[in-house]
Structures are given as structure tokens and as C-alpha cells.
Design a protein that fits this description.
The chain is of the alpha+beta class. It has a domain of about 70 residues. The chain contains 3 helices and 4 strands. Strand 1 and strand 2 form a beta hairpin.
Amino acid sequence: MSNYLREQIDRKKREIELQKQSSNLYTIHPAKSDLILFYEVVEPDGGNTWGGGSSIEAIKWLQLAPTGSRLLISAWDSDEEDAHLVGQTIDVTDLITQARKADL
């Protein structure tokens, strides 16, 4: 192996080790999941305003929805024939509201 390749491998190993040392967060989740995310905007009375696979569209629909509406996210696993809900649906309305207040 050439010296250049050895140096690049050693440099990358040092970077990875530094990242591990500087992070207190550990995760069991892969960087990108194969799960299908489904976004729903639900009105206060429980009616479904919008549902789909786009996070951007979900946020737009939440903004247009009546006061008190919620943005829910569910994760689905799919085989050749059926889709199966994985875990519980998560309400991210407060997260979106706080991000808007912070101008994010």
C-alpha cells in the first residue's frame, strides 16, 4: 500500500475516533431507515385534513389548517403486499410551532 493511502486511512481513523470522543449521543438507528414515513394533518375534531409522504407539504398544510390542528408522523414497514405500522404515531406539532417561533 502506498504511503499516501496509508496516511489517508490513518487520518480518517483519527477523525472517526475524535467524532466518537466528542459525541455523547449513541443511537441504535441506522443513518437512513428503509421505513416509509407518513405525515398527517389532523383537525381538532379528529378529521384528517391532509396525508402524504412529503414533510414540506405536511408543514404547509398544517399552516393552512384550523387552529389546534396537529401534525402526526407514523413509520411504516412494507413487504410485497402489505404495509405495517412500526411503533406509535408521533405528534410533532409542538416542534414545528417552536421552530416557527424561533424563525427556523
